[in-house]
């Protein structure tokens, strides 16, 4: 009987998630972004992968919003963690992403939080950066996500902008 109650509570919690807010993300002038280049591979494919993963992260964040709200994001610039620099081997040059403390991630985007009636609840421009990232930390060595620091930066922005707001 107790197990059924726990399972029922878990299913009930999942059902609330299904009715959460949504996000719509657009990417403006991607070729002019500060740094969204691959160290290896095709540039278009890499850009699409980065945009898809960051769009997915915005959607996960928006799921924390009330169900009748939609977050609209227009990304205008991305500067990924690190810098792509050439390395020279025996027969050819290759590229590698080098990460130093001064190469922190940055992003610029316009945002608008919309109600279901189409009214803007909150809007603005965001210029976010994660200057405090610690690439040498245990967490970064254990991570499997190439965009760990960018997602961490966006989560902090979201929490400060929409979740941890003082009552007005």
Automatic annotation (TrEMBL):
Keyword vocabulary terms for this entry: Signal
Pfam families reported in the protein's UniProt record: DUF3016
Superkingdom per UniProt: Bacteria
InterPro entries in the cross-refs: DUF3016 (IPR021557)
Secretion signal, residue range per the UniProt entry: 1-20
UniProt-recorded name of the protein: Uncharacterized conserved protein
Species whose genome carries this gene: Idiomarina loihiensis (strain ATCC BAA-735 / DSM 15497 / L2-TR)
